[in-house]
Every structure is written in C-alpha cells, then in structure tokens.
C-alpha cells in the first residue's frame, strides 16, 4: 500500500480489492499451468517407477491408505479451507484476514479430534483394511500435516497469491517423490509411499506458512460463525469430490483384490492428467469471479465461464481418442499391466463432465451460490455410492469407472442448470469443434502408424504419444483464434486462455 488508511477501530484498511481483470486471471493461471505440468510429469514418472517396484498389489495397499486419508481428511477439515479462501479474499482489513486464518484452525479442532479418536478406536480394523501395520500413528500424523498444509495454501489463495501456491505444491511433489524413492530403495515397500505423503505435507505446510503475509489475530465469535456458515457448503463440494474421486476405490477395496485397486487407481491417475487445464482455470477463476460479482460486472463472469469451459476441454478431447487407440500399449509398456485399458477409456470419457464441473463449480462459488453447489453435490454423492455398490461387485473396475462417469455427468448438468439463472451460458463452439476435428485427425494418424511399430516398448509408446501431441499442437496453432491466445500467452507467462 502506498499509504495506510485507518478504519474506525484502528485496523489497517486494505482498501477495495484491485479489479482482477483477465490479465490477472491469466497470469495467475499461467504459473499454475506451468507448475502443474511439471508436477504431473514428476508424478507420472514416479508412478511408473512405483508400479514396477511394487506391482499392482503393492500399489493397491498404498492407494487404499491414500483413500482413507482423503475420506477422513474431508471429515476432519469440514470444508474450512475453502471458507478461508472466500472470507480472506473478502476481508477489508489486515486484522480481519488474521482473524479468519486463526479462526479456521480453531474451527477445525473439533472435527479433527473426533476423527482422530475414531482412528484410534478402530485402528485394528483399519490396519486389516489397508494391509499395513502401524496404521493409526501414520494416519493421524498424515491427517494433521495435510490439514495444516491445505489450510495455509487456502490462505495464500485468499491473499491472491495464486502463483505462489503453484510453486509450494510443486516443492511438495518433489519432496514426496524423493522421500518415497529413497525409502523404496531401502526396502520399505508400500509404506515408503506413505512416508512420501507425510514429507510432502510437511514441506507444503512450512513453505506456505513462511510465505503468508497475514499475521494471525484473535478471532471473534462472528468470525468463526462466518467461516462455519460458508464451510457447510464447501464441505458439500468436498464430499462430492470425495464421491467422484474416492468412493469407487473404497468400494473396490472392500469387494476386490488389492491388485484390482492398484490397476484401477493407476488408470484413474493417468486419466486425471487430462484435467490439467480445467484444474488451473477453476482455481484461478474463483477469487476473480467473486470480485466481478461483488462489483456488478456480470458480463465478465459470463465471458470467463465461456472461455473457461471451452479451454478446460483442451486436453480431454484428444486424450479420449488417444486412449481408445493406445490404451493397452500405454498400460503395458509403462506399468507392466495386462489389464485396465477399458477402465482407462471410461475414466477419460468421464473427465469431459468433470472438466466442465470444475469451471461451473468455481463460478457458482464466486457468484455466492454455495448452496447450489451443496445441493447438487448431495444428490450426486448418493447416486455415486449407490452405483458403485451396485456395479462394482458384478463388474469390478469397469463398474467403478462407469459409476464415476455417470456421477460426474449428473453433477455437471445439475450445476449448469443452476448457473444458467445467474449468467447466460455459452461456449466457443468453433474452438470446441476444432478440438474434436483435431482429435479425429490424431486418431487417424495413430491408426496408420501403429501397425508399423516394431514392438510395445516404452520408447515406442512415448514416440507415438509425442507424435500425437505434435499433430494436435500443430492443429491448435492453425486455428486463428486459438493460435492468437496461445502465442500471446507464452511470452508474458499467461495461461493459454484469454478471458478478455
């Protein structure tokens, strides 16, 4: 601030937030985009190594533990991290920000205590379910450091340090891989990956705390109530994400072998790479949409939604075709799996709906419609659990994938139906059509080239994927509007999506 403006109670008034125009969103998104590309790449190669060392059964043990962390983490945090981002971005004084930050940790103490007590009481059963000894101390510790990291990173987002959170997450990913590989080399087996999660969360928590500009302050009752009022709805969103991301794995862990869990989760994580653009756009849009809405600039919100949805599909559309042609080769060459190609294809198709949902959900929060997100998510959570219980015992991994696809589709449609009463909904039909055409061209090229490949080896699979990327990327640059946005973005570190 150039000069301090004192409020009546002596607090430093932060003044009205700068108008987060399209350039702000693009700049923040670019940092996220680059860091997440690196993060996904590091995670991708690490998973290849883990699969070859542990096999599908060993991976299944780790993925079951990771699922428990995600499920219990949502219960112990109760949506407070999402509320922190919202309330801190709305704060007009330094003290308000500090009070919201401290209040968030206070609010989280009760649910975290209840969850930790439950872990201790049911520790023996949890150990049997996961397939690891000493699950109780590991689970409680990972839950604690992960909750702290999530809260502090959310606070950074509330300060609009979006690009900073990108590098914090990237640092955590590097630490996770280094620690996991180190313990694997030392012969620790699947628990090595658990140690990696703990080290990553510690790194992210410490880094985020050191980078925060907010000084903790004593919260008032109204502060905690404000956080709680919003966290009720963000908890609903997180439960929906839980149902979409982890309900299938939980049911598989009950009804299927750890090998099936390992194959399914590996396919899921591979399909999740296609959501990179949608994740980046959704995270970057939320704070900006809040300010546009509060200043009455709804035309900017509508335009942001239009381009956000259009470009959230950038990687998903060609990936569907690529997996349809090369799914078996990818899983075999990279991970050594002989099954899972159909599961992978169904999951990638499901990411179409999830990409749209990532954008619509963040826009709904930005225009202060958390109740809409909550109720649409409540409906889809129930549907997903029922579908998984009905399909997994009979169809295994394919049934879980089908349930996930159906859930994402219902959730996206429900949120779009709700959002249309707030802003006019539209997409760049020409850009999406061009993506579809290019995906078809990529599929044709792969079908022509694949018969001439000497064998299913890792180098050849990478070569085919590189060819597909080159064809698709060249085609994107051949489209006038998309080329302009992509090339304009790169030199100034912006997202290849213009929201202006």
UniProtKB/TrEMBL annotation:
<feature type="transmembrane region" description="Helical">
    <location>
        <begin position="333"/>
        <end position="353"/>
    </location>
</feature>
<feature type="transmembrane region" description="Helical">
    <location>
        <begin position="174"/>
        <end position="198"/>
    </location>
</feature>
<feature type="region of interest" description="Disordered">
    <location>
        <begin position="1"/>
        <end position="23"/>
    </location>
</feature>
<feature type="transmembrane region" description="Helical">
    <location>
        <begin position="398"/>
        <end position="419"/>
    </location>
</feature>
<feature type="transmembrane region" description="Helical">
    <location>
        <begin position="308"/>
        <end position="327"/>
    </location>
</feature>
<keyword id="KW-1003">Cell membrane</keyword>
<dbReference type="GO" id="GO:0005886">
    <property type="term" value="C:plasma membrane"/>
</dbReference>
<feature type="transmembrane region" description="Helical">
    <location>
        <begin position="267"/>
        <end position="287"/>
    </location>
</feature>
<protein>
    <submittedName>
        <fullName>Oligosaccharide flippase family protein</fullName>
    </submittedName>
</protein>
<feature type="transmembrane region" description="Helical">
    <location>
        <begin position="374"/>
        <end position="392"/>
    </location>
</feature>
<feature type="transmembrane region" description="Helical">
    <location>
        <begin position="57"/>
        <end position="78"/>
    </location>
</feature>
<feature type="transmembrane region" description="Helical">
    <location>
        <begin position="134"/>
        <end position="153"/>
    </location>
</feature>
<feature type="transmembrane region" description="Helical">
    <location>
        <begin position="30"/>
        <end position="51"/>
    </location>
</feature>
<dbReference type="InterPro" id="IPR050833">
    <property type="entry name" value="Poly_Biosynth_Transport"/>
</dbReference>
<feature type="transmembrane region" description="Helical">
    <location>
        <begin position="460"/>
        <end position="478"/>
    </location>
</feature>
<feature type="transmembrane region" description="Helical">
    <location>
        <begin position="431"/>
        <end position="448"/>
    </location>
</feature>
<keyword id="KW-0472">Membrane</keyword>
<keyword id="KW-0812">Transmembrane</keyword>
<dbReference type="Pfam" id="PF13440">
    <property type="entry name" value="Polysacc_synt_3"/>
</dbReference>
<feature type="compositionally biased region" description="Acidic residues">
    <location>
        <begin position="10"/>
        <end position="23"/>
    </location>
</feature>
<keyword id="KW-1133">Transmembrane helix</keyword>
<feature type="transmembrane region" description="Helical">
    <location>
        <begin position="99"/>
        <end position="122"/>
    </location>
</feature>
């Amino acid at each position: 601030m150039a000069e301090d403006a004192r409020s009546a109670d002596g607090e430093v008034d932060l003044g009205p937030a700068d108008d987060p125009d399209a350039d702000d969103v693009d700049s923040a998104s670019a940092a996220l985009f680059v860091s997440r590309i690196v993060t996904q790449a590091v995670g991708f190669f690490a998973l290849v190594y883990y699969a070859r060392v542990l096999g599908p059964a060993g991976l299944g043990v780790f993925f079951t533990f990771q699922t428990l962390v995600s499920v219990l983490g949502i219960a112990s945090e109760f949506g407070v991290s999402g509320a922190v981002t919202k309330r801190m971005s709305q704060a007009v004084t330094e003290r308000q920000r500090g009070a919201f930050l401290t209040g968030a940790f206070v609010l989280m103490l009760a649910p975290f205590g209840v969850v930790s007590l439950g872990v201790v009481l049911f520790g023996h059963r949890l150990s049997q379910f996961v397939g690891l000894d000493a699950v109780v101390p590991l689970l409680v510790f990972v839950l604690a450091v992960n909750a702290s990291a999530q809260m502090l990173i959310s606070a950074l987002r509330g300060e609009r340090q979006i690009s900073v959170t990108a590098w914090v997450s990237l640092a955590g990913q590097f630490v996770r891989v280094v620690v996991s590989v180190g313990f694997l080399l030392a012969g620790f087996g699947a628990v090595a990956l658990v140690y990696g999660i703990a080290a990553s969360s510690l790194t992210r928590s410490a880094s985020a705390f050191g980078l925060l500009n907010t000084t903790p302050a004593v919260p008032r009752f109204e502060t905690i109530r404000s956080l709680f009022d919003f966290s009720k709805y963000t908890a609903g969103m997180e439960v929906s994400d839980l149902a979409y991301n982890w309900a299938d794995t939980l049911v598989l862990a009950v009804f299927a072998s750890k090998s099936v869990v390992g194959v399914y989760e590996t396919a899921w994580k591979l399909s999740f790479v296609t959501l990179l653009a949608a994740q980046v756009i959704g995270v970057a849009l939320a704070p900006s949409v809040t300010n546009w809405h509060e200043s009455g600039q709804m035309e900017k919100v509508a335009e942001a939604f239009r381009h956000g949805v259009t470009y959230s599909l950038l990687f998903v559309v060609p990936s569907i075709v690529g997996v349809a042609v090369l799914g078996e080769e990818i899983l075999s060459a990279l991970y050594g799996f002989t099954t899972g190609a159909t599961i992978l294809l169904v999951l990638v198709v499901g990411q179409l709906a999830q990409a749209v949902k990532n954008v619509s959900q963040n826009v709904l929060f930005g225009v202060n419609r958390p109740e809409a997100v909550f109720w649409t998510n409540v409906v889809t959570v129930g549907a997903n659990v029922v579908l998984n219980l009905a399909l997994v015992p009979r169809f295994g991994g394919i049934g879980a994938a089908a349930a996930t696809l159906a859930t994402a589709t219902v959730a996206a449609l429900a949120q779009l139906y709700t959002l249309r009463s707030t802003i006019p909904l539209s997409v760049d039909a020409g850009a999406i059509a061009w993506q579809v055409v290019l995906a078809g061209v990529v599929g044709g090229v792969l079908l022509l080239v694949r018969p001439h490949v000497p064998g299913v080896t890792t180098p050849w699979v990478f070569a085919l994927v590189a060819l597909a990327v080159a064809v698709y990327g060249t085609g994107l640059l051949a489209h006038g509007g998309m080329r302009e946005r992509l090339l304009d973005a790169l030199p100034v570190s912006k997202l290849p999506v213009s929201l202006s």
